[in-house]
Amino acid sequence: MSKHHITATVNGEAVEFLCETQATLLDVLRDELGLTGAKEGCGSGDCGACSVMLNGRLVCSCLVLGCEVDGHSIDTIEGVAEGAVLHPLQQVFLEEAALQCGICTPGIIVAAKALLEKNTDPSEEEIRYWLAGNLCRCTGYDKIIRAVQKAATVMREA
Fold it and tell me: pLDDT (tens digit, 9 = 90+) per residue, 67-86?
């Protein structure tokens, strides 16, 4: 198999890597770049555990080929916090115990952050709609929805 030389921007940093043709963006993030926050839950785009932002668009990284990101910008869960300072979503998820096993949490936070960047005051219905592509098998969704609502309030007041 031939490998492709790819350059991209990941969490604001320029990166270069070699990518096999069939490797997914999720494979590249985890195996080549050491960014293990995005998880493979299903491998078919049904669970959202591997959600990342690609050029400002929420995508399942298991459905994107690594070769397709040449010259593009990717934002992952690792880029949500600013150094040691957690993003309000991350802090509220901890405070509200809106996570358990943690498999779905990175994808949910990436998706919720994307929502709150577009809509600073979403209704419960809008939050549920926006997060519909992210499955959680442990917590149920009430704590997650409350955490996103609280984070929206914290972010508006900041």
Answer: 999 999 999 999 999 999 99
Alpha carbon distance 35, 70 (integer Å): 17
Relative to beta strand 57-60, strand 51-54 is antiparallel
Give the Cα separation of 151 and 138 in Å (integer).
21
Phi, then psi, of 25 in degrees rounded to 5: -60, -40
Domain that holds residue 65: 3-79
End-to-end CA distance of the chain: give it in Å, rounded.
50
Into how many domains does the chain fold? 2
How would residue 120 be classed by pLDDT, with cut points 50, 70 and 90? Answer: very high
The span from the CA of 93 to the CA of 143, in Å, is 8
